[in-house]
Amino acid sequence: MPFQRQIDSASHAINNSFFDYYQHLVNCFDQSSNHSTFASHLFDPAHIIDSTYDAICYMIAYGWQHYQSMQHLLHNTIDVTSEIQHSIRLIDYGSGQGIATLAFMDYLAQNRVASTTALEVHLIEPSKISVGIAVLLIKKLAKVHGIAVSIHCQICTLGQASLPSPSTNKETFHLLSNIIDMHTVHEVIAELALQMKSCSNQNFLLATSHNTLDAQVGYHILRQEMDFVDHSYEDFRNVTCPVYDFDKLSWTSTTFKQRALIMQWGTS
Questions:
Q1: Among 117, 132, 184, 238, which residue carries the largest CB count within 10 Å?
Q2: 178: which DSSP letter?
Q3: Over the stretch 157-214, which tens digit does the pLDDT of each residue have?
C-alpha cells in the first residue's frame, strides 16, 4: 500500500483515541515488505522528516511513547474539570505529527469536557509533511470528540517562529514534547521565553522528555530563561507502556525515565 494511503487509512480508523491510528498504522506496516529498511530510518529526532515513509517510521518508533509521556504529565498535573474553559489555546512547539496536541485532546475527552471546549491550535514545525499529517489527525480526532478546533501552522524552525498575537482565550498551554533535549532548541529557548512572557491571561508550560543528559541541560536553560513564572514544578517518574518492537515486529512493554516541567504565569 502506498505510504500516503497507509496514513489516510489509519486516520479513518480513529473511532475513540489516537491509539486507533497508531495501532492501524503498525498493522499496515507489519503487512508491508519494508522491514529491512525500517531500522535505517530511526534517525536523530532532530532530523527534519521529508517523506511519508520517514513519517510512518518515526511514528511507529516513537509515537506511542511520546503520547504516553504527555498523557502521564497531563493526568498527574492538570485538572481541566476544576474550572472548565470553553476556549483554550494550544501552542505545540516542534509539533511533528501533532502527538502532544492529540494527547491533550484525548485528555479532554477522558475528562468528559471535550464537547464543551473549543481549541485554537498553533503548530510550529519545519517539516511540511509532518504538519500535513498533524492537521489531518487533529481534524479527525476533533470530529470524533466533538471539539470545535481551528488550526494555525508555521512551517519553520523554532528560531524562526513568532508566537501568535494576544488571545481572547483565558488559558494558553505551551506544549514542548520531547524537544527539550535538542541542541538546536537550547539555542532558541531565550528568544522563545521572551515571547512567552508577553502572552496574555493564564499560561501553562508543559515540557516532557526522557531524562537524558541533554534534556537536563535543556531544562536548566528553560528554568533560567523563564524566571518570570509564578509557579514551577518538576516531575520525575518511571513510565511503563506498550510499544511496537520494530526488530521483532511485535508488541512489547518498555519502561523509561520521564522528566517533566510544569510552569504557570499570567493573570486570571
A1: 117
A2: S
A3: 999 999 987 777 789 999 999 999 999 999 999 999 999 998 888 999 999 999 899 9
* Phi-psi group of 254: left, alpha or beta (phi > 0 → left; psi -120 to 50 → alpha; rest → beta): beta
Q: Which domains, from first to last, does the chain contain?
A: 3-265 (3.40.50.150)
Backbone dihedral region for residue 201 (phi beyond 0: left; psi -120 to 50: alpha; all else: beta) = left
181 Cα distance to chain centroid: 14
**3-class secondary-structure state, position 263:** strand
Show Cβ contacts of residue 143 under 8 Å, excluding neighbours closer than 6 positions: none
Q: What is the pLDDT of residue 82?
A: 64
Q: Which residues contact 250 (CB under 8 A, 6 or more apart)?
A: 244
What is the gyration radius of the CA atoms in the chain, in angstroms?
18
At 225-252, the pLDDT tens digits run: 999 999 999 988 888 887 877 777 778 8
Please check whether residue 18 is in contact with residue 102, taking contact to mean a CB–CB distance below 8 angstroms. Answer: yes
CA distances from 48 to 157, 220, 251 (A): 10, 25, 27
Q: Are 263 and 199 in contact (CB under 8 A)?
A: no
The 10s digit of each residue's pLDDT in 246-258 is: 777 778 888 888 8
pTM of the model: 0.92
Tell me the C-alpha to C-alpha distance, in Å, between residue 16 and each of 81, 105, 106, 126. Answer: 20, 11, 9, 29
- Residue with grid cell 519494508, as numbered in its chain: 34
Largest CA distance in the chain: 54
